[in-house]
């Protein structure tokens, strides 16, 4: 039986884990540019314990959606809730965020990087050690715990960043293109790691990605966004088993889901390139 980081899997406690309701985000004008209507109106119910990916053309508002859900950006209209409480301008307890860029601190060893957030929060040394040991072992970094980021590959540095989020015992994990800078093979292996993390912690996961195959492989549902301002065109359910891994791509029915995603995105990507988009409803529940 695998060790769970969260003591009770979220799916046993909540049905809807996080909710965006009629959310828009408009960036104010800045030097030489008018305001930017980046997002919405958009609604989404994130189901407890699911793995949901979001895909969409470049600049359609995916990162803005994640920032608003994480409490890192305040919506211009609409509401955001996590575990039934309003999210108001700060990352709620229980939410962990992983970004694309290598956010490890180069002057700290792997274990000090992983312990950083816990120490800053004033956690006692014994509990910090227990959690760091678990996260370092879970992410396959045991032999590198005293190494510095400059001594690690890009994939391993990204493991450090995930371990740093994992020690916070997040019940909702938000990832913004976490594997964007990695080569294809490392990306596939990291995808398998992420699936294992999702299964064994029982957390809810929302992943932003450009890679349609990655979204297909990893997800229970895939939200497809229209060109800016980002709204959902559709939420595609994959129906894949929970104990999936990258071998899923060998199934004959795998390609049909990716093809469906691409059929949506082809037109939207062209619109994004041409700088226009049609009015859409934006409801996805
Ligand atoms: N701070 C800001 N001020 C003004 N406009 C912004 C700001 N941040 C983002 N934008 C604009 O909002 C739109 C959505 O940006 P966002 O980064 O959310 O899109 P994205 O889908 O994540 O893009 P990509 O796929 O290229 O990473 C873009 O047109 C972007 O230029």
From TrEMBL:
Pfam family, one: ABC_tran
Any one GO molecular-function label of the UniProt entry: ATP binding
Keyword match Nucleotide-binding: yes
All copies of domain ABC transporter, residue ranges: 18-252
UniProt KW keywords: ATP-binding, Nucleotide-binding, Transport
Coiled-coil zones: none
CDD domains: ABC_NrtD_SsuB_transporters
Keyword Transport appears in the UniProt entry: yes
Family: Belongs to the ABC transporter superfamily.
Name of the featured protein: ATP-binding protein
